[in-house]
């Protein structure tokens, strides 16, 4: 009798368990239908799927600022003067007084040629000059005596004229001897080869102990003037009118040069504009001058040239926020509900980092600078705060408490 009672109790327990599961299932279905019909929770899911998350973006506020109007080009650094140093006299090069690549000043001695032969010629010329001066002195003394005798009718007029011609002849010899002395002294000075300009030396092409002369094609060394230095570049002919307008309004136009990474190398001014346009390229050549005090510009170096034309004020946005579409230039603007709107804008001026807006935006509005590829009109966004901005916000939100002095512990 015990076994049938046990089977009946098991059946009763199974029926009770199925009844509880059915009640729970009905309660779950009722809760789901009630939450779906509630307007406050209806937007939490669509078709049984979770709602899409807000798109993270970075924004920047529109602000007032100044942007410089520029025209850019690629230029080549050129030395204003390049001189090949040669010897003016022929002889043995006895010493080199410079190091390769050294900066030198005008008149600085670079090398020396054996001066002994030139010293001997100078002394010989001086001796000849003294001899001629002595002969002239004797002839002038005789001329004075002949003039007194001619007044007394003691000599003929022909003798007086002959003596006067002798004096003039000796004066010419003295003058020629003086010129020979000056030339010999100059040749002796040329044995010291000096720098004709201030600049940087190249690599020397001849060593001490060799014979050197002015007819050598390579010379001793090449000097390039690096302070100041020039940069030659070309601009399209359509920019020429704006450049001339600014040149007439201002005495000089500021020019800056940067390297390939965008670092500024030097600041200078526009020096000259060519007198004709190249018909093959439609450009005009220009030259700017730079002080190059830090020697950052080197001859034949390629640089990025920027000619500053004017400064304009207005609303500025980052250039990366500007988009181009079928409507033209536009930006994504984030409203108070964290929803983006497409806003068409008119661009006044733009460069690599900032853009000056003529119309379409107001100061203080926030434009999207990162994350634009995932945006559409009406997209919900979440603004990503930069780490620096977050630190500033946290610092501003923390109250400042004055530090109290520590009291010593007493036992």
UniProtKB/TrEMBL annotation:
One CC-aspect GO term: efflux pump complex
Record's keyword terms, sorted: Cell inner membrane, Cell membrane, Coiled coil, Membrane, Transport
UniProt-listed InterPro entries: MdtA-like_b-barrel (IPR058626), MdtA-like_BSH (IPR058625), MdtA-like_C (IPR058627), MdtA-like_HH (IPR058624), RND_pump_MFP (IPR006143)
Stretches assigned to the Multidrug resistance protein MdtA-like alpha-helical hairpin domain: 123-191
Pfam families the UniProt entry points to: Beta-barrel_RND, BSH_RND, HH_MFP_RND, RND-MFP_C
Protein name: Efflux RND transporter periplasmic adaptor subunit
Species this chain originates from: Candidatus Paenalcaligenes intestinipullorum
Keyword Transmembrane applies: no
GO molecular function, one term: efflux transmembrane transporter activity
